[in-house]
Structure formats: structure tokens, C-alpha cells
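Researcher: Here's a chain I'd like modeled. Treat it as a single chain, no partners, no ligands.
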Amino acid sequence: MTQFSCGESIYNPDTSNREIVNCNISLTPLAIKTLKEIQNEEVDDLYLYLMIHGGGCSGYIYDLQLLEDKPNSLYQIIIQDDIKIAIHELDSGLLDGLIIDYVDKLMGGGFKMINPNANGECGCGLSFN
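Model: Modeled as a single isolated chain. C-alpha cells:
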């Protein structure tokens, strides 16, 4: 059985050894189109927060949120086609090189993460390790 230190678990992973890098994230044309459609329905000045949390069946789970809140100094801002992506610096090493796509399917459609840093992912693609 895996031994965890106090406060650490698969749902609260240790972040002390995470590498902080200048993160490079790309959006596919369909992801850009979908995000712009969502932004047109909402307010204009939104940030796409891309975060990682402990959880899912593979260890980490992606969390995407469109928020009006301006990120603080612990976030890197990546701008592509007027879409502002906010990445927490502690998540930067796990997300560097990530491609955000949008898959339009009847079942299981939505934003899809293509992560070169993932060693594996669950069958639904929502979590990775």
C-alpha cells in the first residue's frame, strides 16, 4: 500500500518538487472557435484558467474554467487568438506543450487535452499521470 505524508494523497499531491517552466500551450482551430463562441455569450474579458488537481482514476485531473477574475502574479498568461489562458506556475511543468482541442461528438464531446508530459491517461481522457 502507498504511504503518504501528512496532508498528501492522490487527491492532494505534493507540489514541492514541481518544476516551474515558461509554459507553452496551444489551442486547435476548433478549440479557438468554441471558446470565442462561449466568450461572445458571456462578458468580453475572460480568462481561461487551466488547472491541475489531484484526482480522477490516473492521479491528476484537468480543470478548465472561464472566469472574469484577473490572475495574480503566481499565474502565467498565454495569449492565443485573443484568448487568455491562465496557468498556475506550479502546474506549468505538467502542462508545458499541452494542446487543447475540442471534440464535437454526441457522447463524450468537449475539450480534449493532448499532453506530452502524461505517462498515461484514463479511458475517458479526463485524468492523467
